Amino acid sequence: MAQVTGAMVMAAGLGKRMRPLTASSPKPLVRVAGAPLIDHTLQHLARVGVRDVVVNVHYLADALEGHVSNAPFGMNYVVSDEREKLLETGGGLVKALPKIASDPFYCVNSDNMWVDGPTPALTQLAEQWDDKRMDALLLLVPHARAHHHGGMGDFHLDGQGRVTRRMERKVAPYIFTGIQLMAKRLIEGQDSEAFSTNRFWNRAIDAGRLYGVMFDGEWFDIGTPAAIKPTEQWFAHG
After folding, report:
1. For residue range 13-37, what is the model confidence (pLDDT) as tens digits?
2. CA separation (Å) from 185 to 67, 131, 143, 209?
3. Is residue 180 predicted with pLDDT exceeding 80?
4. CA-wise closest residue to 217 among 82, 116, 105, 140
5. Separation of first and last alpha carbons in the chain
6. What is the pLDDT of residues 79-89, one digit of tens each?
7. Helix (H/G/I), strand (E/B), else coil: 64
8. Residue 1: inside a domain
9. Residue 180: which domain range?
10. Who wins on pLDDT, 189 or 213?
11. Would you call 187 helix, strand, or coil by DSSP?
């Protein structure tokens, strides 16, 4: 089992699909079920013993930086500043890498929510991590437990847990939750430019080193304002 004490929380997006709620607030600070979205993510990280968190900021960065400066959940926070240029998910990881405290480390989007099953999602990743075989381990969820997500799926898993992509115009059984465990070696040596995490995944797939684990809880895609009310109802009564 990997000992994971550090995490990167991706929080620099523009939140365009969440308008008008993001007209005056960054998406990670939109409140759902009584708390800002980012706090739900941070609470999960704190529960599994993460001590050091890097948060990248861009849109309405002062508000987000002010929020994490209060050190919620007793963790240490460092900001990776993308005010001048939004670097997307891949470039954001490259810039933040020197600040990330552990290897491997959790990388988690700040705009989804989840309810753990019998084993916490982050613990599932740590337990399944094999540093000799893996460069990244993705938490995947089947369509039936991906609330408010209307896509065709992202990935397939083979019998060994290796990940392959969905073919064009085909349906794949698993959706990426925005939660993963990554080795720093997958990111090192890249230029800090704007690009997607897909570049890292493609390299890992080509090397046979991208793996996935199926999440056994419930996952909620909070992509638009319409997803908020039914999510809150589920949390209240589910």
Report:
1. 888 888 987 888 899 999 999 999 9
2. 31, 11, 31, 12
3. yes
4. 116
5. 31
6. 999 998 999 99
7. helix
8. no
9. 6-237
10. 213
11. coil
Token pair for residue 102?
Answer: 């552990």
CA dist., res. 170 & res. 8, Å (int): 32
Residue bearing tokens 């002062």: 62
The predicted pLDDT at position 190 comes to 82
Both tokens assigned to 234: 């589920």
Residue 15 sits in a domain of what CATH number? 3.90.550.10
Please check the confidence at residue 206 and state whether its pLDDT lies above 70: yes
Structural domain count, the chain:
1
C-alpha 74/C-alpha 76 separation (Å) is 7
Residue (of 116, 126, 105) closest to 52 by Cα position:
105
CA distance 9 to 77: 10
Question: Is residue 97 situated within a structural domain?
Answer: yes
The reported pLDDT for the residue numbered 238 is 65
Residue 189 lies in a domain: yes
Indicate the helix (H) or strand (E) that contains 67: helix 61-69
Q: How far is CA 72 from the centre of its chain?
A: 18
In a domain, 221, yes or no: yes
Instruction: Pick 82 or 137 by higher pLDDT.
Output: 137
The structure tokens listed for 200 are 């890292």
